[in-house]
Amino acid sequence: MANLRIALSPGDGIGPEIMDAVMHVFRQAGVHEHLEFVPVEIGERVFATDSRGMTDQAIATIESCGVLFKGPMGTPIGGGGKSINVTLRKMYSAFANVRHFQALPGVETVFSRAGVHVDFYIVRENVEDTYGGIEHRLTNDVIECKRLISAPGSDQVHRHAFELARRLGIGKVHCGHKANIMKMTDGLFLDRFREMAGEYPGIEIADVIIDALCMNLVLRPQIYRMIVLPNLQGDIVSDLAAGLVGGLGFAPSANIGRHMSIFEAVHGTAPDIAGKGVANPTSLLLSGLMMLRHVGMLTQAAVIENALILSLEQGMHTADFGSGREGAVGTEGYAEAIVRNLGKRPSDREATPVPEGQDRPTLVLGERPRANTLLRTFETVRSVFVGCDIYLDTTLSPPELAARLQAIATGTPFKLTMMSNRGTQVWPSGSVFTEIVDYYRVRFELRDMHDAASLGQGPILTLLRKIAEKFEITDFQPLKHFDGRPGYSLAQGQ
Ligand code: NAI
After folding, report:
1. Does 398 lie in the same domain as 308?
2. Distance 290 CA to ligand 1 centre (A)
3. Which end of the chain has fewer CB atoms surrounding its CB within 10 Å, N or C?
């Protein structure tokens, strides 16, 4: 009698073929004795009737199971349909995207040819960053995308990374970032990483700027065991990493949340080969093994992994890899070869130890939340208003604009302290060589900071109204001090 339910969606394109192959291997390895796979209707065809690409029934099933195993899904190009993958991850706060990049026997890469063994994890923040998709057209020529990084959002992903490292016996975790430029957002991500590391004294940490990380990965990927990254940087670096081990066909992916987790292949629906029975099911199978380990079925995961590795050592390959070797098998033949090798061991170097007696799910589902959970990291600190950044749609030159704004601010508690254009200071000092666009940030700060304690928002709104009588305001951002420290960045050149 199965004792854990898993929502199952084969997906679109090659999805059903590769999912059939994985289910065949799972069944033969006894996985179905302990897991019940419940089909759910999500995918490209559902967009015709539901703009979310999933039915209410599917959503209810996924939520009651807590684990979703899915094949690739197409997103209709154009129209309002959003990527189901991104929707699911965000809706269910699957905050950590975990990908394992390991060199597999028979998968030739520049590193395998050089005898370099690649084996590392990327843990990518999965909810925040530019993936909020908060974008606005501000002026004739300028569009913005807001990038949000939160302390609790960063904590969740860092904690997951350290816990995973501890479980896997990984002794060193790197944090990749661009905190030299995005000092506040990536700075927060990095600070929280260092803070969290304090709870894991057995694990060494290091940080690396994202551009250097990319170069290092291409030159000597073997120096990394686990890298934690913000969302967009993690997205890009993950695909680079997939390239190091032979492409997306070999990179499994898990999206882990407090209540819900989603396991999926990272490649797409491969419409060019769909229905031909030639697709490579490795990525989906490896994602399935991550799922088995997530629910506690370590025994079957190791048995299947060993059978897969042995099959690869024996030269089994689909047409998309194997360096042009003869004898490519189709998707079904690939699954059959793995099934034949269940219970056997690959070479000692590649074999995964098979833990005994860990063949039943141990995952305990949390109680369904009754309302949205508020995440907090910091104690509430004292914050006071000290001014505001106002964003203006104007083509005036910096000196002209400054003169007019200074005139408007006369008699208010604020003085104009800085103007920037595309983040570069253009007033009070700057360079005529700085090219500008029709979108300025103008900063007003209190003439006397002693007034901050009693200021409140009122005088800021009064200033805004006065400026709005003369200019088009596109946005404004109150400036605050938190426990006496400025909560805003300086402009480039300030
Ligand atoms: P793709 O990954 O589907 O295909 C790129 C190339 O890789 C194609 O030549 C394809 O034949 C090959 N390929 C991919 N997976 C393979 C496999 N398992 N075995 C052998 N060859 C394989 O990327 P593409 O063409 O950009 O996207 C097609 C569709 O997939 C789009 O609708 C896209 O939105 C969707 N997609 C879905 C993803 C997901 O569900 N996680 C991820 C990426 C794309």
Report:
1. no
2. 21
3. N
